[in-house]
Amino acid sequence: MGAGHAHKLYRHGHSPVHALPPHCKLAAVFCFVVVVVSTPREAVWAFGLYAVLIGAVAYVARIPAGFLLKRLLIEVPFVAFAVLLPFVAQGERVEVAGLSLSVSGLWGAWNVLAKGTLGVAASVLLASTTELRELLLGLQRLKLPPLLVQIMSFMIRYGDVITDELRRMRIARESRGFEARGVRHWGVLAKTAGALFIRSYERGERVHLAMVSRGYAGSMPVIDEVTASRAQWSYALTLPACALLVCLLGWIL
C-alpha cells in the first residue's frame, strides 16, 4: 500500500494513543459514535460528559485544542442545516428573542449539533493520531471487503497526482492570460474538467497495465500484519465503555 502518505489531519507524535494499533482505534471510534447517537437528546448533561471524554483523549494524545477546533470547521454545512430547523419545523412553537421557533425544531437542531460535533471530533482525533496507511491496514484487519480497501488505497495514492495535474493545467491557463471572472468563462472551466477526466482515465489505464505486468491479479498483498494485545484492546475500548455507561445513565435518569 505504499510508503507514507501523511495527510494534513495527521499530527506526528509519540503518545499512548498514537501507539495503539489502528484497528483498535477504528473499533473504539465506531463504538463511541454508535453510543453517542443512541443517547436520548433530552439528556443534555450526557453530551457534556462525552465532550469531556473527547477532551481527555485529546489531552492524552497531545493534540492541541486549537488544532482540533480548527478541523471541526468541516461540519459548518451541518451547522447551517441545524440553524434552519427551528424555523421550518412544524408543531408547538415558542417565542425566543422575538422569533417564533418550533420546539421540535429546537430539539432537532440540538440533536444534530451535539451528536454531529462529537462524531466529527472523534473522527478528527482518529485521523490526527493515525496515518492513512495505518488506517488501511486497520480496515484490512477488521475484515473490511478487500475491494473497498483497494479503492480507498488507490484514492489516497493518486489523489495527489490528480490534484497536481489540475494545478499544472491551471498554471498553463494563467500563463496564457486566462482568468475566470464570470459566467462567460465557465465553458473554459468545463473543458478543463473534461480534459482532466480524460487524462485521469488514461493514467489509470497505464497504471493498471503496469500493475498487471508486475503480477497484479485483482488483490493487493498484505505487507504488514497488524496485531494487538489484550491490554491494547482494553486501553482503546476505555472511551466507548465510559460513553456506554453515560448513555445508560441518560436513559435511566
TrEMBL record:
<feature type="transmembrane region" description="Helical">
    <location>
        <begin position="43"/>
        <end position="60"/>
    </location>
</feature>
<feature type="transmembrane region" description="Helical">
    <location>
        <begin position="72"/>
        <end position="89"/>
    </location>
</feature>
<keyword id="KW-1003">Cell membrane</keyword>
<dbReference type="InterPro" id="IPR003339">
    <property type="entry name" value="ABC/ECF_trnsptr_transmembrane"/>
</dbReference>
<dbReference type="InterPro" id="IPR012809">
    <property type="entry name" value="ECF_CbiQ"/>
</dbReference>
<dbReference type="Pfam" id="PF02361">
    <property type="entry name" value="CbiQ"/>
</dbReference>
<protein>
    <submittedName>
        <fullName>Cobalt ECF transporter T component CbiQ</fullName>
    </submittedName>
</protein>
<dbReference type="InterPro" id="IPR051611">
    <property type="entry name" value="ECF_transporter_component"/>
</dbReference>
<feature type="transmembrane region" description="Helical">
    <location>
        <begin position="233"/>
        <end position="252"/>
    </location>
</feature>
<keyword id="KW-0812">Transmembrane</keyword>
<feature type="transmembrane region" description="Helical">
    <location>
        <begin position="109"/>
        <end position="127"/>
    </location>
</feature>
<keyword id="KW-1133">Transmembrane helix</keyword>
<keyword id="KW-0472">Membrane</keyword>
